[in-house]
Amino acid sequence: MKFAVILVACFLAFAYANEEAEVVKEFSEVNVEDFKYVLELTNKIRAEQEGHLQDKDNWVVKGEYEYISKEGKPIKVTYTADATGYHPHVEQ
Q1: CA–CA distance, 92 with 69 (Å, rounded to integer)
Q2: What counts of helices (H) and strands (E) characterise the chain?
Q3: 9-31: b or e for each residue (b if 16 or more CB lie within 10 Å)?
C-alpha cells in the first residue's frame, strides 16, 4: 500500500505543479483491498491508476499518465507494478 500511496502523491504533485491548470475531472475511491483514481487537468495532463491487494502483502497496480513534453510532443506512459517491480511502457 505504501508504494501506491507514494505513487499517487507523486502524480498529484506533478499535476498540481502547474498552477495555471484547472481540474477537469477528479475521482478517487480508496478501500481496504483496492483503490482507483482519475485526474485530468486543462493543460492536458491526465493520470489514472487502480490497484488491488493480491494477497496479504502484495499489491498489483496498473495505470497510465499522459502529458505534453516541453517540445510539444504527447507522451503516454502505461505501467504495472507488482511484487516483481515497476514495469512502464512509454509511447511518444
Answers
A1: 10
A2: 1, 6
A3: eebeeebeeeeeeeeeeeeeeee
Hey, what's the cell of 81?
507494478
Q: Judge residue 72's burial from the number of C-beta atoms within 10 Å of its C-beta, 0-12 exposed, 13-18 middle, 19 or more buried.
A: exposed
Taking 60 as the threshold, does the pLDDT of residue 9 lie above it? no
Mean pLDDT of the chain: 84
Determine the Cα–Cα distance for residues 21 and 44; give it in Å rounded to an integer. 9
Which pLDDT belongs to residue 75? 92
Q: For residue 47, how far is the Cα from the chain centroid?
A: 5
pLDDT in tens, 48-70: 999 999 988 889 999 999 998 88
HSE-CB at 77 with a 13 A cutoff on CA atoms is: 14
Q: Which contacts qualify for 25-34: CB closer than 8 Å, 24 or more apart? A: none
15, pLDDT greater than 60:
no
